[in-house]
Write a structure and sequence with these properties.
By secondary structure, the chain is of the alpha+beta class. The chain has a single domain, classed as OB fold (Dihydrolipoamide Acetyltransferase, E2P) (Beta Barrel). It is about 15% helix and about 35% strand. It is built from two helices and five strands, in the order βββααββ. A hairpin with a 4-residue loop joins β2 and β3.
Length: about 90
């Protein structure tokens, strides 16, 4: 997962053409032994997050997974509903 820095406000990534969504994270559910976690958003969407690299990317952006709750991100998902990349819109913890 990479943070897509080329994304714009037009709901599409300039680099890859992926559809972008903007929403606030309301909860993150996961188990350390599970490969995919769930991320719940205020738009009602529930997507998957890869528990290793994906979770570390959220921690890099917000300090902790707990700090990510309540923050807005712009994100894209693949055809399985797994977050491919995101751009934090609310920075820090």
């Amino acid at each position: 997962m990479s943070r897509k820095t080329s994304c714009n406000e037009h709901k599409q990534c300039n680099k890859c053409g992926a559809e972008l969504k903007t929403a606030r994270i309301t909860n993150i559910f996961g188990h350390p032994c599970s490969g995919l976690w769930q991320v719940h958003f205020d738009n009602g969407e529930v997507v998957h997050l890869e528990s290793g690299y994906g979770a570390r990317a959220l921690v890099d952006a917000f300090g902790t997974l707990e700090n990510a709750i309540g923050k807005r991100i712009q994100y894209s998902t693949d055809f399985l509903g797994v977050i491919e990349g995101f751009v934090p819109l609310d920075i820090g913890g």
